[in-house]
Design a protein that fits this description.
This protein is an alpha+beta fold and 196 residues long. It is 34% helix and 17% strand. The strands form four sheets. Strands 7-8-9 form a three-stranded antiparallel β-sheet. Strand 4 and strand 5 form a beta hairpin.
Amino acid sequence: IRRQMEKGYVYGYSHMLGYRITDGKLEIIPEEAEIVRRIFRMFLSGQGKEDIAKELNRLGVMRDTECGRWYLHTVDYVLTNITYTGDQIWQKTYATDVLPFKQVHNRGQKPKYFAEDCCPAIISKEDFNLAQALAQKRLEARKQLEIVQSPYRKHIYCAECGSMCRSKMINGKQYWICHKRDREKAYCPVPQVAEE
């Protein structure tokens, strides 16, 4: 199987935005590849993952025919998928050896294989690496904010929809907003509330 993969043949593939399988090899779907490029451009120009998902949904950009909506985690999947550079990592998941057999994430239990330039690239390696560096920088900034978080964190829930509330700094002032409202105003009618 590994030799076949090295020749560019695909195993264990589920639909990935921007590609289809033709004769056992990945082939670019131009319309979907443009969506992938657009996501990278938006992220590298400063938009957050959740904002990108909201904008794609607002514009009616479909993810695929089965599940059309975009979410933070689906945008994150696109931004972190090395296949878009033409490289691939194989055996990211594997089947367990005991019944019932399950596919589990490979966290070092089995060897992983890195294949360079084994499929057509949609994104340059430079843009992919810039996106990874930017995501890491944002994560570190968020961790710094968590150090000075309120003692009320994870203890306030929305009286209307029941979802957990989170703090949000806007122009140096701290607000509390429920996760549903923060994700989409239509999900909860309760506006953000100033902490003071």
